[in-house]
Amino acid sequence: MLVPQVIDAVDLPVIAAGGIVDGRGLAGALAWGAAGIAMGTRFLLTSDSSVPDNVKAEYLATPANGTVVTTAIDGAPQRVVATDMVRRLEAARLTRFPRAAANALRFRRLTGTPLRALVAEGLRMKRSQDLTWGQVALAANAPMLTRATMVEGRTEVGILPTGQGVGAIDELPSVAELVERILAEASAALDRLCGSGD
Questions:
Q1: What is the pTM of this model?
Q2: How far is it, in rounded angstroms, from Cα 94 to Cα 24?
Q3: Secondary structure, 3-state, 73-138
Q4: Are 45 and 60 spatial neighbours (Cβ–Cβ below 8 Å)?
Q5: Is the dihedral of CA 184, 189, 191, 196 positive or negative?
Q6: For each of the chain's 198 residues, which pLDDT tens digit applies?
Q7: Residue 143: Cβ within 10 Å count
Q8: CA 158, CA 148: separation in Å to the nearest integer?
Q9: CA dihedral over 104, 56, 86, 38, signed as positive or negative
Q10: d(Cα 17, Cα 35) in Å, to the nearest integer?
Q11: Nearest CA-CA partner of 33 in 57, 11, 13
Q12: Cβ of 84: how many Cβ atoms within 10 Å?
């Protein structure tokens, strides 16, 4: 974790994130000097989350080594569950651009974005981020893939963005239960560190 280095480099409160799924992670972040934590995947996997149940089941079935960092989705590296869809995207080097362009046009129709605005945004991205046209099309494609999974529950055509801690999550508590448990675990961990747990 780079939390201590970031804290030393800035004069702002630092929020630790990445791979934190329980109160021990909160205690560790506080021990490093962080002001708090952010837990995306852990809160996504709660009974209160609006993500479809079949998608939550895919996440819960993901082992600790069941993720991959890929650039095949939008040209930028991101961690996702290693699904068949991601493996196909990784393998389909030659057909990636046409597929991405077609999905970008579908996304445009879904959102009502004018074609001119989509092209202008693509040109802006290409210039400002030094992307290839294939990467621009992939970037336009990413919202379509994410929506297909996270909103529509279509895991076979979408992607499952995740953090490294996904393999340590095996149940769906409510948000209230999760927060209460995290605080109790962090308190117990800090008590152990301070020697008051005897």
A1: 0.78
A2: 45
A3: CCCCCEEEECCHHHHHHHHCCCCHHHHHHHHHHHHHHHHCCCHHHHHHHHHHHHHHHCCCHHHHHH
A4: yes
A5: positive
A6: 689 999 999 999 999 999 999 999 999 999 999 999 999 999 999 999 999 999 999 999 999 999 999 887 777 788 999 988 888 777 766 555 666 666 666 666 766 667 777 777 777 777 777 777 767 776 766 777 788 889 989 888 778 999 999 999 999 999 999 999 999 999 999 999 888 655
A7: 15
A8: 5
A9: positive
A10: 11
A11: 13
A12: 9
Query: What are the contacts of 78-84 at 24+ separation with CB within 8 A?
Result: 78/161, 79/161, 79/162, 79/163, 79/164, 80/159, 80/160, 80/161, 80/162, 81/159, 81/160, 81/162, 81/166, 83/58, 83/155, 83/159, 83/160, 84/156
Coil vs helix vs strand at 191: helix
Side chain identity, residue 130 = D
The amino acid at 185: E
